[in-house]
Amino acid sequence: MIRFEHVTKRYADGTTAVEDLSFEVAEGELVTLVGPSGCGKTTTMKMVNRLIEPTEGRILLDGTDIATVDPVGLRRRIGYVIQQVGLFPHRTVLDNTATVPHLLGAPRARARARAAELLDLVGLDPKTYGDRYPEQLSGGQRQRVGVARALAADPPVLLMDEPFGAVDPVVREHLQSEFLRLQSQVRKTVLLVTHDLEEAVRLGDRIAVYGHGTIEQFDTPATVLGAPATPYVADFVGADRGLKRLSVTPVEESRLEHPPVLGRPGDGFDAPWAVVVDADGRLDGWVPSPGSPARPAPRAVPLGASLREALAALLQDDTGWLPVTDPAHGDRYAGVLTPAAIHRALRGATPEAEPPAKPEADRTPTPTP
Ligand code: ADP
Ligand code: MG
Q1: Whose CA is nearest to atom 16 of ligand 1?
Q2: In this structure, which topology does domain 2-248 adopt according to CATH?
């Protein structure tokens, strides 16, 4: 969808902002550009909508060299969200959001109806907020209006430059989750610039880690954290990359262990403990030792949840293991996750090189006493 071919940008004063960049962003993919200040992220982004022209190389959008496309027409196909948001102070939230569809020729009533839909989509009730002016909103709400406005013309591509940079950490996390949910609905091709590694890891399908004007590594968050390509990247992702991997490593079937499964709490079994499922295969409780009464099942997480969510759930009670359910099969019980399995998953050198969990039948996890 977006393809950089050997792109270099040298500013008039001789500063080389980016050098020989080549990468590709697939349709519907969200790529984060992350790196320290001054490493060329904004320059990269502004070349996509031709606010900056490359010195060398070319950029293709959907196979077309953008240098051959009228910049105004190009920008209609590219939503642009910046940290300062840039809302018109004397227009209401609804009018701010409706600006682009209206400019594109939509009749005023239709543009406003569309704007109301978009405000709803980004979590702002148009009835409450539509008639307010930007200064009557919190920073987080203004950012949401910025996102709604960028989506107003339904562009296939979205450029976001530090979109959540100006709000406090709690609001930022909230906006990030909202944006992920939104992106799962609208599936835009997104380039998102951030200097915050946590944000890059959380949002990106893939991350481009910038050195100085070059990309040091371009890969999935799990691989960047699990197998940094260069000492620079290792240093950038930091000593706590094992912890960061928690949020990007999913709970997978291969990591689960399988204690005996009972159809009724009173059934006998030959293991330290067992789980109980109902007629539909859903978890109903567990039996801490043969012959003892059943206890309620601890909180479960679904397959595909992050190890971060799993660890948080594990720390919620004293059981010492976590039931896992399968959302693809009616939330049936799928197995259990233990602290040792989480440790193994995070210690693997790379997601691929990691040794698979051994499927031994006798390796029953030990509950804490
Ligand atoms: P980032 O967004 O990663 O912080 P930028 O792309 O804004 O980095 O800047 C990359 C480099 O280019 C920096 O050294 C910056 O000072 C320089 N730069 C940016 N804009 C200009 C300009 N208009 N003229 C000269 N140098 C610039
Ligand atoms: Mg920048």
Answers
A1: 38
A2: Rossmann fold (3.40.50)
